[in-house]
Design goal:
2 helices; about 15% helix
């Protein structure tokens, strides 16, 4: 069985990408790049999971981002 050459979303490497199970809720195929040691999916159905939204206003204004910034265990002091 020949797998399609899937490029890594982060480093673009094709040689080191392998299958890495499937998402819990979406059941979509996940991939793992052994070169940059990251996991990714080809298609994302949730906007917050898309790499281009990581630094956007949506990610910064999300409930998760707010709860992490208010967590006293992450503050120095």
């Amino acid at each position: 069985m020949k797998m399609k050459n899937i490029p890594c979303r982060y480093c673009g490497n094709v040689e080191y990408v392998r299958k890495h199970g499937s998402g819990k809720s979406t059941k979509m195929q996940r991939y793992y790049c052994t070169y940059c040691v990251r996991t990714f999916q080809i298609k994302y159905i949730y906007d917050i999971s898309k790499p281009e939204t990581k630094d956007s206003k949506v990610a910064k204004s999300s409930h998760y981002a707010e709860s992490c910034s208010n967590n006293p265990t992450t503050m120095n002091g």
